[in-house]
Amino acid sequence: MDKILVTGGLGFIGSHTVVELQNSGYEVVIIDDLSNSSIDILDRITTITGIRPQFEQLDLKEKTKVSSFFKNHNDIKGIIHFAASKAVGESVENPLMYYENNINTLVYVLQELKKLDHANFIFSSSCTVYGQADELPITENAPVKKAESPYGNTKQIGEEIISDTCKVNPKLKSIALRYFNPIGAHDSANIGELPIGVPQNLVPFITQTAIGLRDQLSVFGNDYPTPDGTCIRDYIHVVDLAKAHVVALERLLQNKNESNYETFNLGTGKGSSVLEVIQSFERVSGQKLNYKIADRRAGDVIAAYADTSKANNELGWKAQLTLDDAMKSAWKWEQNIRKNA
Ligand code: WQD
User: Fold this and answer.
1) Whole-angstrom Cα distance, residue 150 to residue 123?
2) Are 165 and 110 in contact, with CB atoms under 8 Å apart?
3) Which among 84, 108, 165, 174 has most CB atoms closer than 10 A?
């Protein structure tokens, strides 16, 4: 049974990916510093799969601890690297924390991978690297534009660090997965998105408003050049996204990669406006949502949705779940975590 390291494995996308790895028969070891997750996610994963992943609480900024971890786990066959800070607004306020936490940690992990006979490395990247793309849908060849935030910049820099390292280390194979907008939760409602404090992202703000944690959702602008005036995004169910990580990892484990550094967009290929997401929520929950139209939010792009043909054709992966499936699972998760609160 191949052993796979998942850094940030107790986070939103990380925990869903651990479940899919275990479902596919992999042995999983998780590293997480618990700065943006909680240890009870480990129990929740175990409840879903019946298998308790190995876990080490470790801050990847501590280089010597990273090195000793890899010495103790020299049988790791693949690494999926989620561990990073990911709040766009926070990164603007505290850029150095983002550069230290997202870049230094990546360098320390790559330095350890260079020592291995072979290494298969999946990097958690983001459609943020494209900024406001000139053409829609967005392909992997779209130009990477100047990042709108330090967070987005750390994803661009991270991809360049990996690409440069792969160029001179042919035994290191890597895939960067550029997520569009991950939403939803596992259908068991045991794991899902758990933002700390006031949610920055749309879907958790919707479900927290519906359950009464927030008074009202503000729709950030309805005067954009889109059909209903609100911004358009490609909302992908987190379970579809998690499954894509297993497929990408297997591409490397089975040496099916065409080069030792590749990028793939992970989205549904369909754009949905903010109002359409609200309508989806109202449809699946049977509840009216309390919202108002507010001013635009700085940094928002008008529209972003993926051209998914590369992932469809080369990974053999295609998103299966719909916006309604995602909103239904997000609502079930919100109700589940609040019922015992
Ligand atoms: C979606 C739309 C908002 C909240 C960010 C990161 C991206 C990734 C996903 C990490 C926008 C509108 C939102 C609200 C609203 N994160 N909105 N009211 O900004 O597309 O992407 O999260 O990898 O890297 O950039 O996602 O959910 O914040 O916003 O109207 O209270 O919802 O204006 O149009 P975004 P989002």
Assistant:
1) 18
2) yes
3) 174
